[in-house]
Write the C-alpha coordinates for this entry.
Amino acid sequence: MDKRMFIVLFRHHFSKRGHTMLLVRLLCFIIICFGTSQAVHAKPYFPAETVPPTLLTPPLAPKSAAWNEEIETIIALQKHASKEEINAAASERDVHPERMLETLHPEITRASNPALFVLLDRVSDTSRVVTNQAKTFWSTKRPYLSDSRVKALIDAHSNNAYPSGHTSASYCFAYVLGMVFPKERQQFIDRAETIAQHRVLVGMHYPHDIKGGKQLADLIVGGLLQNAAFRKDLAKAQKESHTAD
Protein backbone atom coordinates (compact mmCIF):
# COMPACT_ATOMS: atom_id res chain seq x y z
CA MET A 1 0.00 0.00 0.00
CA ASP A 2 1.46 3.38 -0.95
CA LYS A 3 1.61 6.60 1.07
CA ARG A 4 -1.44 8.20 -0.56
CA MET A 5 -3.66 5.22 0.23
CA PHE A 6 -2.56 5.29 3.89
CA ILE A 7 -3.44 8.97 4.13
CA VAL A 8 -6.89 8.49 2.54
CA LEU A 9 -7.75 5.60 4.87
CA PHE A 10 -6.62 7.38 8.02
CA ARG A 11 -8.44 10.59 7.06
CA HIS A 12 -11.67 8.68 6.38
CA HIS A 13 -11.46 6.70 9.62
CA PHE A 14 -10.55 9.43 12.06
CA SER A 15 -12.43 12.43 10.65
CA LYS A 16 -15.71 10.76 11.63
CA ARG A 17 -14.61 10.62 15.25
CA GLY A 18 -13.16 14.10 15.58
CA HIS A 19 -9.71 12.83 16.53
CA THR A 20 -7.98 15.70 14.75
CA MET A 21 -4.74 15.72 16.72
CA LEU A 22 -4.37 11.95 16.54
CA LEU A 23 -4.93 12.11 12.80
CA VAL A 24 -2.27 14.77 12.40
CA ARG A 25 0.23 12.75 14.43
CA LEU A 26 -0.46 9.58 12.48
CA LEU A 27 -0.13 11.36 9.15
CA CYS A 28 3.19 12.88 10.24
CA PHE A 29 4.40 9.45 11.33
CA ILE A 30 3.44 7.90 7.99
CA ILE A 31 5.10 10.64 5.98
CA ILE A 32 8.28 10.39 8.04
CA CYS A 33 8.40 6.60 7.73
CA PHE A 34 7.80 6.56 3.99
CA GLY A 35 10.15 9.45 3.38
CA THR A 36 12.93 7.82 5.35
CA SER A 37 12.53 4.43 3.68
CA GLN A 38 12.69 6.00 0.24
CA ALA A 39 15.88 7.88 1.10
CA VAL A 40 17.62 4.88 2.64
CA HIS A 41 16.52 2.11 0.30
CA ALA A 42 17.46 3.24 -3.17
CA LYS A 43 17.69 0.86 -6.12
CA PRO A 44 21.20 -0.54 -6.73
CA TYR A 45 22.64 0.19 -10.15
CA PHE A 46 23.44 -3.49 -10.60
CA PRO A 47 22.98 -6.74 -8.63
CA ALA A 48 25.59 -8.02 -6.21
CA GLU A 49 26.49 -10.92 -8.51
CA THR A 50 28.06 -8.43 -10.91
CA VAL A 51 31.09 -8.28 -8.60
CA PRO A 52 32.07 -11.81 -7.46
CA PRO A 53 33.70 -11.94 -4.00
CA THR A 54 36.47 -14.12 -5.42
CA LEU A 55 37.88 -11.08 -7.22
CA LEU A 56 39.11 -9.84 -3.84
CA THR A 57 42.34 -10.84 -2.15
CA PRO A 58 41.31 -13.46 0.46
CA PRO A 59 41.21 -12.39 4.13
CA LEU A 60 44.00 -13.36 6.49
CA ALA A 61 43.82 -16.81 8.05
CA PRO A 62 42.98 -16.58 11.79
CA LYS A 63 45.99 -17.13 14.06
CA SER A 64 48.41 -16.87 11.14
CA ALA A 65 51.53 -14.75 11.57
CA ALA A 66 50.05 -11.93 9.47
CA TRP A 67 46.77 -12.09 11.40
CA ASN A 68 48.59 -11.95 14.75
CA GLU A 69 50.60 -8.97 13.54
CA GLU A 70 47.42 -7.09 12.67
CA ILE A 71 45.91 -7.89 16.07
CA GLU A 72 49.00 -6.40 17.72
CA THR A 73 48.68 -3.34 15.48
CA ILE A 74 45.12 -2.76 16.66
CA ILE A 75 46.07 -3.21 20.31
CA ALA A 76 48.86 -0.66 19.93
CA LEU A 77 46.52 1.82 18.25
CA GLN A 78 43.94 1.46 20.99
CA LYS A 79 46.48 2.22 23.70
CA HIS A 80 46.92 5.70 22.24
CA ALA A 81 43.36 6.36 21.05
CA SER A 82 42.20 9.88 21.84
CA LYS A 83 38.71 10.80 22.96
CA GLU A 84 38.36 12.95 19.84
CA GLU A 85 39.19 10.03 17.54
CA ILE A 86 36.79 7.70 19.31
CA ASN A 87 34.00 10.29 19.18
CA ALA A 88 34.66 10.84 15.48
CA ALA A 89 34.51 7.09 14.84
CA ALA A 90 31.26 6.87 16.81
CA SER A 91 29.74 9.61 14.65
CA GLU A 92 30.75 7.62 11.56
CA ARG A 93 29.15 4.37 12.74
CA ASP A 94 26.49 4.62 10.05
CA VAL A 95 28.13 5.78 6.84
CA HIS A 96 25.92 7.74 4.46
CA PRO A 97 26.36 10.47 1.81
CA GLU A 98 25.96 13.34 4.28
CA ARG A 99 28.90 12.01 6.27
CA MET A 100 31.16 12.50 3.27
CA LEU A 101 29.88 15.99 2.50
CA GLU A 102 29.66 17.53 5.96
CA THR A 103 33.28 18.66 6.18
CA LEU A 104 33.75 19.91 2.60
CA HIS A 105 30.25 20.98 1.58
CA PRO A 106 28.01 21.39 4.64
CA GLU A 107 25.74 23.64 2.58
CA ILE A 108 24.77 20.76 0.28
CA THR A 109 21.57 19.03 1.36
CA ARG A 110 18.99 16.70 -0.13
CA ALA A 111 16.81 19.76 -0.73
CA SER A 112 19.50 21.84 -2.42
CA ASN A 113 20.98 19.04 -4.57
CA PRO A 114 18.33 16.35 -5.12
CA ALA A 115 19.99 14.91 -8.23
CA LEU A 116 23.25 14.43 -6.33
CA PHE A 117 21.52 12.48 -3.58
CA VAL A 118 19.61 10.32 -6.05
CA LEU A 119 23.03 9.39 -7.43
CA LEU A 120 24.68 8.87 -4.04
CA ASP A 121 21.79 6.88 -2.57
CA ARG A 122 21.93 4.44 -5.47
CA VAL A 123 25.72 4.23 -5.20
CA SER A 124 25.27 3.53 -1.48
CA ASP A 125 22.86 0.68 -2.07
CA THR A 126 25.03 -0.75 -4.84
CA SER A 127 27.98 -0.77 -2.47
CA ARG A 128 25.85 -2.25 0.30
CA VAL A 129 24.54 -5.25 -1.64
CA VAL A 130 27.93 -6.04 -3.16
CA THR A 131 29.71 -5.71 0.19
CA ASN A 132 27.14 -7.81 2.04
CA GLN A 133 27.57 -10.56 -0.53
CA ALA A 134 31.35 -10.48 -0.02
CA LYS A 135 31.01 -10.49 3.77
CA THR A 136 28.74 -13.52 3.63
CA PHE A 137 31.09 -15.33 1.26
CA TRP A 138 34.26 -14.75 3.31
CA SER A 139 32.57 -14.99 6.74
CA THR A 140 35.27 -13.60 9.04
CA LYS A 141 34.95 -12.42 12.63
CA ARG A 142 35.69 -8.88 13.71
CA PRO A 143 38.86 -8.26 15.76
CA TYR A 144 37.07 -7.50 19.04
CA LEU A 145 35.24 -10.84 18.72
CA SER A 146 38.42 -12.74 17.88
CA ASP A 147 40.83 -11.55 20.58
CA SER A 148 39.75 -10.34 24.02
CA ARG A 149 42.61 -7.84 24.12
CA VAL A 150 40.94 -5.87 21.33
CA LYS A 151 38.11 -3.69 22.60
CA ALA A 152 35.03 -2.40 20.84
CA LEU A 153 35.47 1.31 21.52
CA ILE A 154 32.12 2.27 19.98
CA ASP A 155 28.66 0.72 19.68
CA ALA A 156 29.75 -2.43 17.90
CA HIS A 157 28.74 -4.12 14.67
CA SER A 158 28.76 -7.91 15.00
CA ASN A 159 28.29 -9.01 11.39
CA ASN A 160 31.15 -10.37 9.29
CA ALA A 161 34.30 -8.30 8.99
CA TYR A 162 35.85 -8.81 5.56
CA PRO A 163 35.78 -6.62 3.56
CA SER A 164 35.14 -3.36 5.40
CA GLY A 165 31.78 -1.96 4.36
CA HIS A 166 32.58 1.50 5.71
CA THR A 167 35.67 1.50 3.50
CA SER A 168 33.95 0.30 0.35
CA ALA A 169 31.07 2.75 0.80
CA SER A 170 33.15 5.79 1.73
CA TYR A 171 35.61 5.19 -1.11
CA CYS A 172 32.75 4.72 -3.58
CA PHE A 173 31.32 8.01 -2.36
CA ALA A 174 34.73 9.67 -2.62
CA TYR A 175 35.34 8.53 -6.19
CA VAL A 176 31.86 9.53 -7.33
CA LEU A 177 31.95 12.87 -5.52
CA GLY A 178 35.31 13.45 -7.16
CA MET A 179 33.57 13.10 -10.52
CA VAL A 180 31.03 15.74 -9.50
CA PHE A 181 33.55 18.03 -7.76
CA PRO A 182 36.85 17.19 -9.51
CA LYS A 183 38.86 19.93 -7.78
CA GLU A 184 38.17 18.28 -4.42
CA ARG A 185 38.69 14.66 -5.42
CA GLN A 186 41.72 14.14 -3.18
CA GLN A 187 39.98 15.73 -0.21
CA PHE A 188 37.09 13.30 -0.55
CA ILE A 189 39.56 10.40 -0.76
CA ASP A 190 41.30 11.68 2.37
CA ARG A 191 37.95 11.79 4.15
CA ALA A 192 37.23 8.19 3.10
CA GLU A 193 40.63 7.08 4.39
CA THR A 194 40.00 8.75 7.75
CA ILE A 195 36.70 6.91 8.11
CA ALA A 196 38.35 3.63 7.13
CA GLN A 197 41.22 3.95 9.60
CA HIS A 198 38.86 4.83 12.43
CA ARG A 199 37.28 1.41 11.95
CA VAL A 200 40.60 -0.24 12.75
CA LEU A 201 41.17 1.98 15.77
CA VAL A 202 37.86 1.09 17.41
CA GLY A 203 38.27 -2.67 16.95
CA MET A 204 35.76 -3.19 14.16
CA HIS A 205 38.26 -4.14 11.45
CA TYR A 206 41.70 -5.52 10.69
CA PRO A 207 43.93 -3.40 8.44
CA HIS A 208 43.48 -6.15 5.83
CA ASP A 209 39.71 -5.53 5.90
CA ILE A 210 40.42 -1.95 4.86
CA LYS A 211 42.51 -3.13 1.91
CA GLY A 212 39.67 -5.43 0.88
CA GLY A 213 37.19 -2.57 1.12
CA LYS A 214 39.34 -0.42 -1.15
CA GLN A 215 39.66 -3.25 -3.66
CA LEU A 216 35.92 -3.69 -3.64
CA ALA A 217 35.30 0.04 -4.11
CA ASP A 218 37.56 -0.02 -7.18
CA LEU A 219 35.57 -2.92 -8.63
CA ILE A 220 32.22 -1.34 -7.84
CA VAL A 221 33.15 2.00 -9.37
CA GLY A 222 34.50 0.20 -12.43
CA GLY A 223 31.10 -1.44 -12.80
CA LEU A 224 29.30 1.85 -12.25
CA LEU A 225 31.22 3.57 -15.02
CA GLN A 226 29.96 0.93 -17.45
CA ASN A 227 26.35 1.34 -16.28
CA ALA A 228 24.13 3.57 -18.42
CA ALA A 229 21.77 4.52 -15.57
CA PHE A 230 24.71 5.57 -13.40
CA ARG A 231 26.21 7.68 -16.17
CA LYS A 232 22.85 9.38 -16.71
CA ASP A 233 22.44 10.18 -13.01
CA LEU A 234 26.05 11.35 -12.80
CA ALA A 235 25.49 13.80 -15.66
CA LYS A 236 22.42 15.19 -13.88
CA ALA A 237 24.36 15.64 -10.63
CA GLN A 238 27.23 17.33 -12.45
CA LYS A 239 24.86 19.72 -14.23
CA GLU A 240 23.10 20.48 -10.95
CA SER A 241 26.37 21.28 -9.15
CA HIS A 242 27.59 23.49 -12.00
CA THR A 243 24.29 25.39 -12.00
CA ALA A 244 24.63 25.96 -8.25
CA ASP A 245 28.14 27.36 -8.77
Remarks:
- The CA atoms of residues 55 and 216 lie 8 Å apart.
- The domain at 45-244 is CATH 1.20.144.10 (Vanadium-containing Chloroperoxidase; domain 1).
